[in-house]
Amino acid sequence: MKLLKSILVGAAVAGTVGAAAAQEQYIPLLSYRIGPYAAGGSGFFGGAIDYMNLVNSKGGINGVKLAWDECETEYNAARGVECYERLKSKSGGAALVEPMSTGIAYGILNRVPKDKVPMTTIGYGRSDSANGKVFPYVFPLLSNYWYQAAAMIAYLGSKEGGVDKLKGKKIVSLYHDSAYGKEPFPVFDALAERHGFELVKIPVAHPGNEQQSQWLQIRQAKPDYVILWGFGVMNPVALKTAQRNGFPRERIIGSWWSGSEEDVIPAGDAAKGYAAMTFTMSGNYPVVDEIRQKVYAAKRGNLDDEGRIGSVYHLRGIAAGILWVEAIRVAQEKFGKGKTLTSEQIRWGLENLNVTEARQKELGAQGMFAPVRTSCEDHTGTGAVKVQQWSGSKWVPITSTWVTGDKALISKLVEESSAKYASENGITPRCLN
User: Does the predicted TM-score (pTM) go above 0.85?
Assistant: First the structure.
């Protein structure tokens, strides 16, 4: 496995690549920049690195600089596990880990509590890990697939005049045939039974660059709506194939991993008017301008194409960087400012996040994501989402407020599923604070 070049910034770096000096906090990045999902990985990890570079350029977190290595996973679960094992003990030990892959997250799910390394799964992963009493080292921050699924159905209901009007309707779930693609089914199934709509599940094999047979099934089924739960090349292929088969894009709603510039620009006119969920809003933010001025102007930017600065994936990486840094900052408040912290102390910080709207404004990111407040019982901290639509040149919000869908249903499913996981794995639910 090839390790990509480590980027340690904020001062001239000498010595071994990746070696953490005193007062540095080390974060291994299980990234992917090649293969069919490269756009997502390069954008997300590029945004996170750009934000960490920005923090380092301003002296770090109370003087503590951030250090990292990248390990190329190609979005492959086995390679992701290998990368995690390789990097988890480097440079004084991992502060946290973020795979940005449901498959890799599942692969190291039982490893991180043994290693006492907190794992963030921002907007993806195992949805019941929101219950920190059972998953104390896993943090599905901002939102998860069950919240998204519930919000999708609420949104489709609103298009009909209320979720009760979905009775008798037919909804196709066109999904990436992977753990990621199957994650929303408990919510979709429960809501289909409750509201009386028919759910048709149609898988698309990795990577998704051939979908003619699936869209033939859709044409024969004549659904009222299609939920596009895709990733990477699967998304523009779906939009273009839908157009060829005469299915209106206005009746397609995409997941947030089907709602980036890289998903719609290759689809051309087939994407105009298409809507997708999001947990980070597109827009112009002071923090992005600051990254341009202090990181890219200093030739420390991570993206090769500066036109991607401020794109959907780049903003999600920035949001991840903000949450990591705020967790370290709040942990320093408790365990000592200006100190390199242990991974368990940073776990405490992740469990005690309180990123208010006022704090977002201070950081130049007001409105980028919903305010976040975590606890032992809630490792997500919000769950709120919005819907945005592709105008042909940019993403435009079409819901004005952050929504959570059927929160009571999500809480019930999280409690039931996490309790089953705890029973099967001999876990006594508890809080570590």
Answer: yes
